[in-house]
Amino acid sequence: MGHMKVGLIQTRTPATHAAALDHVLPLVIDAAAKGARLIATPEGTNVLQKDKAQLLPMLHTLDDDPVVLGLRTAARELGVWILIGSALVRREDGKAANRQALIAPNGAITATYDKLHMFDVDLPNGESARESETYEPGERAVLGLVDGVRIGMTICYDLRFAALYRALAAAGAEILAIPAAFTRPTGEAHWEVLMRARAIETGAYVIAPAQGGRHEDGRGTWGRSIVVGPWGQVVASLGHDEPGVLMADLDLAAVGKARAAIPALANARAFTGP
Questions:
Q1: Active-site residue identified among 52, 133, 156, 192
Q2: Distances from the Cα of 57 to the Cαs of 88, 96, 193, 219, in angstroms?
Q3: Is 3 exposed, middle or buried (0-12, 13-18, 19+ CB in 10 A)?
Q4: pLDDT level of residue 127 (50, 70, 90 thresholds)
Q5: Check whether domain 3-264 has CATH 3.40.50.720, yes or no
Q6: Which letter does DSSP use for residue 65 in this model?
Q7: Alpha-carbon span 12 to 220, nearest angstrom
Q8: Closest CA to 112 of 155, 77, 73
Q9: Peptide bond into 105 cis (omega under 30)
């Protein structure tokens, strides 16, 4: 196993596609210039608009989305892999999807994943969210392949459902992607500890590029993009909510070492009850 240099993009995505592309593209170019082979962006990279009535008419299909098309061109021109943490898109049946897309260095989309778990919550600070009112959830877990390395594709609220990460790791995932647009109260309480827990449980790297700051549509997101190693150590983190690039060099041999030291995937047993 070799090394993989990754670049995580932290954004404060605006409320129109054109502005979103102008915002993310310079950061992607910067990450490529710093030597990233895989560049990962947050959830909602293509547009953030929490008003459903405004958002739904704006949505494109994945194939026609201007931000996705712009990032496919960038992948081709820069010769890198780009994992779009998610694009908010229109499905073929007219419903909306929160969809992750892996773009190869030739510009082709090689894997997509629709967010499985819908963020339907009422937070203690009075904020509430009903993601299921806008988006149709996915039904399947997905592994993407980047230069032969298996990447588990997940999005934001998925973080809280450990069984998904166990399944991805059991299927061979060496890197778990958890791009997010985390709320500030839950981010402060749970972001780092859950990212580290997922890495420890699976013996995999976690890469979590995040939205950060106060957005045009009024939402606040936590930022603090992070890379966690398979032993649970924080490899790199931004520690703030401003747009930026977080670079990390992943030594993929560490995955095998962590899993050999604590063989939790192999030691798991089926059980009955309770």
A1: 156
A2: 12, 10, 37, 20
A3: exposed
A4: confident
A5: no
A6: -
A7: 9
A8: 155
A9: no
50 as an active site residue: the answer is no
Structural contact between residues 229 and 252, judged by C-beta atoms closer than 8 angstroms = no
State the average pLDDT over residues 131-142: 97
Beta bridge partners of 11: 211
Over range 137-143, report the average pLDDT. 98
Set 77, 115, 188, 192: catalytic member: 115
- Look up 131 and say whether it is catalytic: no
b or e along 52-88 (b: 16 or more beta carbons within 10 Å of the residue's beta carbon)? eeebeeebbebeebebbbbbbebbbebebbbbbbbbb
Name the pairing type of β-strands 120-122 and 220-222.
Answer: unpaired
Residue 87 tokens, joined: 């694009």
- Is residue 156 among the annotated active site residues? yes
Residues 199-246 pLDDT 10s: 999 999 999 999 999 999 999 999 999 999 999 999 999 999 999 999
Is 135 within 8 Å of 122 (Cβ atoms)? no
Catalytic residue among 5, 34, 43, 92: 43
Contact 28, 71 (CB under 8 A): yes
> Which of 202, 206, 115, 195 has its CA nearest to residue 167?
202
